Amino acid sequence: MIKNNKDIKEADYEELDKNEKIKDRSKDNSKNALFITRFFSWIIDFVIVYFVAILIASPFLNSSNLVKLSDERDKVINNYIESKIDINEYLGETYSLSYQIAKHTGIYSIINIVIEILYFVVLQFYTGGLTLGRKLTKIRLKSYNGELSINQLIVRCLLINLVFSQLLSFVFLLFNIEIVFVIGSLICEFLQYTFIILAAIFIIARNDRRSLHDLICNTYVVKEG
After folding, report:
1. Rounded to whole angstroms, how far apart are CA atoms 100 and 105?
2. Res. 109: pLDDT tops 60
3. What mean pLDDT do residues 141-166 have?
4. Which of 25, 64, 79, 159 is the most exposed place for a label (fewest CB within 10 A)?
5. Where are the alpha helices (DSSP H) in the chain?
6. Is the separation of the CB atoms in 210 and 202 below 8 Å?
7. For the segment 169-182, what is each residue's pLDDT rounded down to a tens digit?
8. What's the confidence (pLDDT) of residue 1?
9. CA neighbor of 101 nearest in space, from 43, 45, 169, 193
10. 61 three-class SS
11. Helix (H/G/I), strand (E/B), else coil: 68
């Protein structure tokens, strides 16, 4: 019984020490990465993932059909600018063409989602919060819980790396109903980009420079070197 009480006390002390370290870390915000640095890191990572996904998906895409659909969409836009069609015709034709393009690029969506998970979850887990973008901008993702967990990285990936909207948009595409895909995708993209804007505002406005997804995942980003 005495041993159990001792173990409990030691556990309490460890928890107290952990909480004190978190409090001390939260008071020192000078090492936390600036918004502009995090933004450039995010852009670099986004471009890397985009080009890798395009490179892998290219052999599976019908380029001629995609070019034709893109040209048709450009024609619709020009017709609307020149007042040849009204807003209802413009939206109807644009949404229809977007749906057709999405059907032709479904394989790209799958590849892109897989690469984003590998890059933003698996890679960061094994590098301790580093991506190529963070490496180049000399910043690192860290956790207040100690080591970064897979769960933290998955939630961050869904929230800030567009995976959430891409996954749901692909699910809506599987229904093979144009109106379901269009409305579902619009709602997902609105929610996703609203979250990204809020995340940016949080980094700029908060003294500790933590974003909305940092608060949700109990993480922070620091400068290195």
Report:
1. 9
2. yes
3. 91
4. 64
5. 2-27, 35-57, 63-81, 87-104, 106-117, 124-127, 132-137, 150-160, 163-174, 178-205, 212-217
6. yes
7. 889 988 888 999 99
8. 46
9. 169
10. coil
11. helix
Res 2: pLDDT: 47
Please provide residue 142's backbone torsions phi and psi, each rounded to the nearest 5 degrees.
-135, 165
- Find out whether 38 and 220 touch, Cβ atoms under 8 Å: no
Burial of 162 (0-12, 13-18, 19+ CB in 10 A): buried
Burial of 133 (0-12, 13-18, 19+ CB in 10 A): buried
Looking at residue 28, what is its pLDDT? 55
Return the residue matching tokens 């997902």: 188
Which pairs with CB-CB distance under 8 Å and at least 24 residues apart come from 66-72? 66/101, 66/104, 66/105, 69/97, 69/100, 69/101, 69/104, 70/101, 72/97
Q: How long, in residues, is the chain?
A: 225
- Half-sphere CA count of 46, side-chain side, radius 13 A: 10
Tens-place pLDDT, residues 5-34: 555 555 555 555 555 555 455 445 668 999
Query: CA-CA distance, 25 to 144, in Å (whole number)?
Result: 9
